[in-house]
């Protein structure tokens, strides 16, 4: 469904992604994991057409995305929830979520698409009339993911959905990701912390300074000390060794 081959991206004269290969199949949950600055956001921004690669290909359902404008990429069915969860302050929560239903036609009605998003995050029903500026970080994250889902995408990109959230909100987002997955949507999720990776993840890619250093299952990653050093830190490697 999504196939990235040999992707190279330069920013300000520096190579930020150096020959990335990655695939996401229909209905798969795939995690791209790496430390801060590894290049996860740059990968997502390249998929969405905000960054132009110097080499490589990004194809979605057989169509090349490189060179397409962002709105066209979204219309092809890729929903994007960025790390910073931009929620439109001048729109209500309900309007923020409904936004993609105005820009991408789907076989589902606007109501059905919004309802589906609200079923993923039922807590949002209390805030529907509230302005986008009057939300906590966790609420903004829910709106951002719900909005990306209202696009009725066949692939959802979630950039560090747990980043900066309080421990109380993490299980809510985690349950939301599980129900999105149960709907059969393909999800590509970026993470810097292996502990946030759901056990049911299909495949992990580990990115280090713009290069992919590992591809495999979560179980294989846990058995690889060099990989765990990158995605879990030294302390956790010790814990794993004693487990
Ligand atoms: N606009 C920019 N100008 C200059 N350098 C940039 C810019 N955006 C990203 N970079 C650099 O590109 C590299 C990759 O950044 P990117 O944001 O993709 O990493 P990331 O893995 O998403 O990290 P984080 O978890 O901190 O968001 C970093 O070294 C970063 O400093």
From TrEMBL:
Q: Does the keyword section mention Nucleotide-binding?
A: yes
Q: Entry's SMART domains?
A: AAA (SM00382)
ATP-binding listed as a keyword: yes
Keyword tags: Amino-acid transport, ATP-binding, Nucleotide-binding, Transport
Record Pfam families: ABC_tran
InterPro entries (alphabetical): AAA+_ATPase, ABC_transporter-like_ATP-bd, ABC_transporter-like_CS, BCAA_Transport_ATP-bd_LivF, P-loop_NTPase
The record's comment on protein family reads: Belongs to the ABC transporter superfamily.
Q: What is this protein called?
A: ATP-binding cassette domain-containing protein
Organism, as annotated: Ancylobacter pratisalsi
């Amino acid at each position: 469904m999504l196939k990235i081959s040999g992707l190279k991206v330069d920013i300000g004269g520096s190579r930020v992604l150096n020959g990335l290969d990655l695939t996401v199949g229909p209905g798969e949950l795939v995690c791209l994991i790496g430390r801060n600055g590894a290049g996860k956001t740059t990968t997502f921004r390249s998929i969405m057409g905000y960054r132009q690669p110097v080499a490589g290909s990004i194809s979605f359902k057989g169509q090349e995305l490189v060179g397409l404008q962002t709105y066209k990429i979204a219309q092809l069915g890729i929903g994007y929830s960025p790390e910073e969860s931009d929620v439109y302050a001048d729109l209500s929560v309900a309007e923020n979520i409904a936004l993609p239903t105005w820009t991408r036609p789907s076989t589902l009605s606007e109501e059905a698409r919004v309802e589906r998003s609200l079923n993923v995050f039922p807590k949002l029903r209390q805030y529907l009339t509230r302005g986008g500026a009057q939300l906590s970080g966790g609420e903004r994250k829910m709106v951002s993911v719900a909005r990306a889902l209202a696009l009725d995408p066949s692939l959802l990109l979630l950039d560090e959905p747990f980043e900066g959230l309080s421990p109380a909100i993490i299980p809510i987002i985690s349950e939301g990701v599980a129900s999105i997955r149960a709907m059969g949507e393909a999800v590509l999720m970026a993470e810097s912390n292996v502990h946030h990776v759901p056990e049911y993840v299909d495949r992990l890619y580990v990115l280090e300074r713009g290069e992919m250093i590992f591809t495999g299952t979560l179980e294989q990653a846990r058995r690889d000390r060099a990989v765990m050093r990158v995605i879990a830190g030294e302390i956790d490697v010790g814990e794993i060794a004693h487990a």
